[in-house]
Amino acid sequence: MKDAVTHYCQGCGHSVIHRLTAEVIEELGIADRAVGVPPAGCAVLAYFYFDVDMIEAPHGRACAVATGIKRANPESIVFSYQGDGDLAAIGTAEAVHSANRSENITVIFVNNAVYGMTGGQMAPTTLLGQRTTTSPAAAGREVHREGYPIKVSELLASLEGSTYIERCAVNSVRAIRRTKKAIREAFLTQMNGEGFSMVEILSPCPTNWKMSPVKSWKWIDEVMTPYFPLGVIKDSRKGSKKDAG
Amino acid sequence: MKNKEKRLMRGSEAIGEAAVRAGCACYFGYPITPQNELTEYMARRMMETGRVFLQSESEIAAINMSLGAASTGVRVMTSSSSPGISLKQEGISFIAAMELPCVIVNIVRGGPGLGNIAPAQSDYFQATRGGGHGDYRTIVLAPGSVQELYDLTRKSFELADEYRTPVLLLADGMLGQMMEPVVFNDKEILPEQLPDKPWTVKGAKDRPSRFIRSLLLDVDVEEEQNWRLYRKYQRIERREIRHEEYYMKGAELAIVAYGTAARIAKAAVKRCVEKNMRVGLIRPISLWPFPYEHIYKTAETVKHFMSFEMSTGQMIEDVQLGVKGRAEVLMYGRPGGVVPTPAELFRVISRAYNKIAREK
User: Fold this and answer.
1) Mean of per-residue pLDDT scores for chain B
2) pLDDT (0 to 100) of residue A38
3) C-alpha distance from A157 to closest chain B C-alpha (Å)
């Protein structure tokens, strides 16, 4: 990490996830090979914090940009860092097809159930009943109008090409430890040339959820995880016995 | 393959082979007619040479894969046709903003909308005015023969690297399908022979980390970046204008046409000359930068111009900008994928020429 103060709001999960990713990169000794692709979204300025090579991607296109980098320079360790709007709405096609090609890249997918940077609009992962600035009805997001929240990890796990997919959270010390381990597994998957890996991280957005940080941690446990269950969603690596996909 | 070898080639193959011989390491594309022959050629040749060919899920993905690959410093090409090029425009804007080299081929088809797959020149505005959002330009080269498809593809890679900017090669299905002899008058370069670029993101080994971005939230910084790009575009305008003249000596009427239209115009102009009409042709080869200055100088003596385009008239605006009111600018165009015959154009030119002669 660079010696910089982040622009993230109080209680936001991004800074924790940045740190975990950076720690894993350092511990695996791949900092001099790592290339990160930050999204359009709250993490767009990630290149001010990560002390590795980075290149910005147009909104939703991080998986395509990462594909180009990895194909052109296979020695690099390429990761995209994407939010739910970036990966699961505008960038769905790129994510699906990168996973399907078993593109040897790692996706850090931050799911906070809302468009953060643009001010709290409904995301593809916004939960049923969740009120946002663009699902303002008293009943919040409703199926008949806005459809269902997308379970991206399960969706990508259904593709033959995806190799390692785990869903974690960063709302407790235990969850944070688990997330770090998952990020490590994802990078190891890439380092071993085993194909597409993704870690979905349920992350608090107290500002747009209009909650205190502590309450937003609870909300992840009480509302998010029942719909987005934590755990290894898919592991089809050689020698792995945990293939749930 | 030896140098100076002469081969009968299809236009699309000439582009592909020129790219391979220019050391293009990555090609990304998505099927769309009438440019599939190029994608298929690249699939075969890139596989043979052990380089990267990837059929993407969309034109949007293809241009962004190109962006990613370009950021590692390798030579990259993508190709498509009109509707697909529209989809690539966001990516092209990013590539221009991030100052990455990339070659983009547009085998233009009839439009707007889905249009048809026939040869057209209706993407001139999109190509020469940036195409996507923001204050930027792309170099646009318009070959008029299979040999030129070959030569200008090579040139596109060189210009893209020199100026770190996207270069657009503008052709159409007629040029792509046409078979003509091609001389390989260049030296083949392998991707690994190309010099290392000092701005790439390949991992921060033995150097501080870098990032490539286009987001500049500070308006002063963004303004300076825009001026910086502008100065680069001025440099390109000073150095990279290309055009050809045909029977312009003593001409009283100058036809201005590029690409396929210029081929038709050449035949028509030749017939005019044979009939003792003082008609010539100016063929812009670079559409951006456009040969304004040359047209302005020509308009000192030539008082009648005719823009001839396979569209309702787009380049005519540049001809007018070049002429600056010094001469009359006529227009003859056939949009929608219609390819006029030299005989048709000859009749049009004769009529205009006789009218000019009568009014003198």
Assistant:
1) 97
2) 96
3) 19
> Domains of chain B: which residue ranges?
6-239, 245-359
Q: Is residue A72 pLDDT above 70, yes or no?
A: yes
Quickly name the fold that domain B245-359 has.
Rossmann fold (3.40.50)
pLDDT-based confidence at A238, cuts 50/70/90?
A: confident
Overall number of domains in chain A: 1
Given a contact cutoff of 8 angstroms between Cβ atoms, the answer to whether B149 and B173 are in contact is no
- CATH code of the domain covering residue A146: 3.40.50.970
| Residue A243 lies inside a defined structural domain of this protein | no
Which of A53, A68, A93 is closest, CB to CB, to B65? Answer: A68
| Residue A211 confidence (pLDDT) above 60 | yes
Across B3-20, average pLDDT: 92
Q: What is the pLDDT of residue B3?
A: 53
Cross-chain Cβ contact A58/B94 below 8 Å? yes
Q: What is the ipTM of this complex?
A: 0.96
For residue A116, being part of any structural domain is answered with yes
pLDDT in tens, B168-204: 999 999 999 999 999 998 999 999 999 999 999 999 9
Does B6-239 match B245-359 in CATH topology? Answer: yes
* Stretch A102-125: mean pLDDT: 97
A175–chain B Cβ distance below 8 A for any pair: no
Query: A202 CB near a chain B CB, below 8 Å?
Result: no
Taking domain B6-239, whether its CATH number is 3.40.50.300 is answered by: no
Per-residue pLDDT for B12 more than 50? yes
Residues of A whose CB is below 8 A from B91: 58, 61
Q: What is the pTM of this model?
A: 0.97
Is A7 contained in some domain?
A: no
The minimum CA-CA distance between B218 and chain A, rounded to whole Å, is 13
Q: What is the pLDDT of residue B4?
A: 73
* β strands within B81-165, DSSP E: 102-108, 139-141
Q: Does B56 touch chain A (CB under 8 A)?
A: yes
Host domain of residue A214: 14-235
Which DSSP string do the residues of chain A spell out, in sequence order?
Answer: --S----PPTT-SHHHHHHHHHHHHHHTT-TTTEEEE--SSGGGGGGGT--SEEE---TT-HHHHHHHHHHH-TTSEEEEEEEHHIIIIITHHHHHHHHHTT-S-EEEEEE-SEETTTTSEE-TTPPTT--BTTB-STT-S-HHHH-PPP-HHHHHHTSTTEEEEEEEE-SSHHHHHHHHHHHHHHHHHHHTT--EEEEEEE---HHHHTS-HHHHHHHIIIIIHHHS--EEEEE--TT------
**Residue A242 belongs to some domain of the structure:** no
Q: Is B128 on the interface with A (CB under 8 A)?
A: no
